[in-house]
Amino acid sequence: MKKLFIKTHGCQMNFYDSEKMVDLLKPHGYQIDENPEDADIIVINTCHIREKAVEKTYSELGRIRDQVNLRKEKTGKKSIVAVAGCVAQAQGKEIMKRSPWVDIVVGPQSYQNLPELIAKVDPLTKNNHINIEFPTVPKFDHLKSIVTERGPSAFLTIQEGCDKFCAFCVVPYTRGAEYSRPIKSILDEAKELIDNGVKEITLLGQNVNAWHAEWTDKNVWGLGRLIKELSKIKELEFIRYTTSHPLDMDLELIEAHRDVSKLMPYLHLPIQSGSDNILRSMNRKHTVKEYIKVIEKVRHYNPNIALSGDFIVGFPGETDKDHQATLDLIKEIKYSQAYSFKYSIRPGTPAAISLNQVDESYKKSRLEEVQNILRDQQFAFNKQSINSTLKILVLKNGKKSNQYLGRSQYNQSVYFNCNEKNIIGSTVDINVTQAFQNSLTGNIINI
Ligand code: SAH
Ligand code: SF4
Ligand code: F3S
Fold it and tell me: Which end of the chain is less crowded, N or C, counting CB atoms within 10 A of the terminal residue's CB?
């Protein structure tokens, strides 16, 4: 067996792609190894969303060069280095120039060619290879559905790319145009995951609720319909999806939150800013009022739903008043948990050339303010769970002996002790005794 080390940055879609790369390379004799120093192939699956993520890639590549050289000195063996993901797509040529020890650069839509690219790498001539095309035949048609170990919870990408072109965002350039995977290919993969012991599926897409596809009777399905279909699979117990766009929250999906008990009451619905002026210059194509209306509707259909979101502070032109509007919106909605970021200039996106860039010191203090409120909201939300009984899918062992980690319906990490062995993949009832900032603990009441 040859050793494969794979490091993943970025969003869940990148983690899905990494799993697929492992599935793809296993039949070629590769096996996952935690140790990059001894790997025959090192894959870095990269993220381009903010500048920091990109810097990470280059500093990591520096460390890898040293490891690869050391291994060659010690053993005479040359490791193959591949850069995949969104930095590969956006900066393929630059990576080859700045890091000539990289052998392969492969984009998110063309990694299905990885085995052929690896076969082409000649350790002596070191001709490096770039494959960052957006192929006409989507990658899913190439990826044989060989699913290897996944654990009880798995990702399933159903939609890729984006046509919305928010002024700050690289995704339409790195992942390409919006694409919905066909229904049969999704159902086949779901069944295969379930045959491999998966109990929870998280459907993924950059705008997952924009997914739509035609069934054999010519009817077009949206995400709500797909979720209903998946919920019919007996062994599948929990369904989640992420990330949604406010403009694509249609009635069928909202109804699914009322009607499909396997669909978890959790919605990640980013708005980015609480100011209409900023939303307009971000090209988000909706107002704050429209966003609140969507949330009200979702809460009307399922009052139990937990909400999550994303916020960007310091977008070009953001004033104190705009920022205050974001704080007000967060207070009004009450998130169970949410993500927030300082605006990061992304070359090639419209906002990058704005002359109204916000000073770093404002970005810093505004981010702190946003995060303080979100932190308080998350802790308050977690505290509401104390004394309640939550149905938990057991995901893995905790760090302490006899400790397990599971996930609640609201996406909270739940730790508990149990003397039984082999309960990973089971569903247990947990009585929550303590709440922390990022997790809950409790006692198991039945298996
Ligand atoms: N499609 C999703 C988000 C995908 S990107 C949506 O439209 O909501 C994930 C998150 O990264 C975004 O929601 C945004 O909050 C953040 N992000 C994207 N580009 C950014 C940038 N240039 N600077 C800071 N944060 C950014
Ligand atoms: Fe990026 Fe906007 Fe598309 Fe989300 S909707 S992926 S933020 S361009
Ligand atoms: Fe990053 Fe690409 Fe995902 S830029 S957030 S890995 S789509």
Answer: N
